[in-house]
Amino acid sequence: MTETQISIQNLNVTYNGNHALKNISVEIPKKQITAIIGPSGCGKSTMLKCMNRLIDMTDNVTFSGKIIIDNEDVFDKKTDIINIRKKLGLLAQKPTPLPMSIYENVAFGPRIHGVKKKLVLDETVQKCLAITGLWEEVKDRLNSPASQLSIGQQQRLCLARGLAVEPEIILCDEPTSALDPVSSQHIEQQLLKLRKDYTIVIVTHNIHQAMRLADYVIHLYLGELVEHGPANDVFENPKEERTRAYINGTMFSDLKIDKEVDLKGNICPYNFVLAKQALHELSKGKVLKLVVDDPLAVTEVPRGMEADGHKVMSVKQINKTDWEVVIQKKE
Amino acid sequence: MEFRRIEESIFKALMILSLVFVIGSLLFVVGVILWRGLPVLSFDMITKTGEGGYLLGKGGGILNAIVGSLYLAAGGTILAFFLSIAIAFYLQKEYSGGTRLSGLTRLSLDILWGTPSIVYGAFGYIVLIYFHIRASLLGGIIVLALLEIPIMTRAMEEVLKMVPGDLKETAYSLGATRFETTLKVVGKQALPGLLTGVLMAFGRGIGDAASILFTAGYTDRIPGTLFDATASLPIAIFSQLSTPLPQVQQKAYASAVILLVIVLVISIITRLLAKKYTRFIIK
Ligand SMILES: Nc1ncnc2c1ncn2[C@@H]1O[C@H](COP(=O)(O)OP(=O)(O)O)[C@@H](O)[C@H]1O
Ligand SMILES: [Mg+2]
């Protein structure tokens, strides 16, 4: 059993009456990469924001529970937030360079935490830029504005800036979603290298990224903790149906289809009538799969079905001309 | 389709019209001032103070008014700056928490902004009389600062509001305190905009006559201390225009040229400074 770095106990977060995290309890292992996966809006970012108390910046939010890091409860009034944030570096979704030079960006953290000696700062800046592979690229223009770097370089700068504060934990909120594939790969490689010295928590809705990086996986869905466990177990043998469905790409790809109707060759309004007839013959809650090839039907049939109160579960192109529409009859 | 084309050309025409109107009025004002003022502008005017009876056509210049105006506007702007920056930062959500008090502060500032400057002048005058103080540089500076604070504060507040929340979150996530975030990140990002706010207020301050009419006084000498009365360009222009002598009236236009040049030079300096700091800004 590995050591626990962050222990989350009964975490609840409510934004303005919207229950964003529901009674989450989970332990995040030390010096491993933990991936938080789940569709967007399921509360992944919220969970990170609780850990470094950035949630304090939000209006109309209430939270309860405990997050224990090094025997200290992050939510406890007596806890020094500055200290917590020093311990947890953050790599945001969009690169966020500060309005200053490349050098000053990295030196920012050490400076506010009291490092004054130029020599020490120089050394830290060089070391952190080197870890993220940026040193060679920027050593001749350390004094130019950070905003002049490419997006990918900016993200590595942000990582270097976080490391300069000497955190124990690195939180990454979809750190590659704004980057091109090459830069994304760069960041992933660095995270893998950093794993031996840091506890890394990465939020991603890219399941392949999670598979490449994670040692431990937490699956959230609509604010609930669906499943968590070592990456191998979760990816290869998920205990929960919802996790299996999520990993298989679309949330509903494993659903049982009760009836299949081929509507190829029909034009649109007629498509809709035929689909309705087929659905009529099914009992409530059953699932109908349609195959259509009229481009208009691809948008209009799902729209019409939704207007009638049925649930459109997926719309997927299966080959050059054909589309598959899966509809569940309303209860 | 046809309708959209027509619509587009209408808006294009309106845009060109407004551009012509704005640039035209600027050129017209500057042109008239230069045309009337340049021929009478002399070296003596900007190097000599008024010799007794200057307004009656005697010799001398308006150096006293030039220096006086610079003292007044610079003093007023510096004083206003320290107060405005504090108020503007306080009005940010992290500090005031968007309370009723901050709303009230904003409302008061807007009312003060709309208050005619003669009202400030009259108010200053009453205060001076009450305390038995004579019109002085200090009195002028204080009234100008009052005049400039609403302009500067509201301009600065708008600029601070534009600073992206991401930047603040980044600073906080690195363990910066609220104060460090304000000073080292928000302040840096907003600096060019803050400078522009200062410039706007300075322009208003140096051009205002009514507010300092009773509070700064008028004299032929350059003030030596804060408690001396001082001349100023707007009032010099006003007095020169109000004399019955055409040769003195003409000098009013020359004074206006000087005022124009000062404002222009200050604008250019501010622009250059702002540009220098814009380099680092995150867009
Ligand atoms: N500042 C906020 N105010 C109100 N609701 C929010 C705020 N941030 C997030 N939410 C809501 O909380 C839920 C979870 O959001 P988030 O944690 O950002 O999800 P994720 O990162 O998984 O996409 C969403 O329903 C979102 O609308
Ligand atoms: Mg998110």
How would you characterize the overall build of this protein?
The complex is a heterodimer of chains A (331) and B (283). With 331 residues, chain A is an alpha/beta fold. Chain A folds into two domains: 244 residues, Rossmann fold (3-Layer(aba) Sandwich), CATH 3.40.50.300; 70 residues, Translation Initiation Factor IF3, CATH 3.30.110.40. Chain A is 35% helix and 27% strand. Chain A contains twelve helices and 14 strands. The model of chain A has no long low-confidence stretch (mean pLDDT 89). Chain B is mainly alpha-helical. Chain B folds into two domains: 38 residues; 236 residues, MetI-like fold (Orthogonal Bundle), CATH 1.10.3720.10. Helix content of chain B is 74%, strand content 0%. The longest helix of chain B has 36 residues. Chain B is globular. Classes of the chains: A alpha/beta (331), B mainly alpha (283). Bound molecules: adenosine-5'-diphosphate and magnesium ion. The site of magnesium ion has 3 residues of chain A, from helix 1.
Provide a compact summary of the structure:
Chain A has twelve helices and 14 strands. By secondary structure, chain A is α/β, with parallel strands linked by helices. Chain A has two domains: 4-247, P-loop containing nucleotide triphosphate hydrolases (Rossmann fold, 3-Layer(aba) Sandwich); 259-328, Translation Initiation Factor IF3 (2-Layer Sandwich), CATH 3.30.110.
Keywords for this entry:
heterodimer, A: 331 residues, alpha/beta, Rossmann fold, Translation Initiation Factor IF3, 2 domains, 6-stranded mixed β-sheet, elongated, B: mainly alpha, MetI-like fold, binds magnesium ion
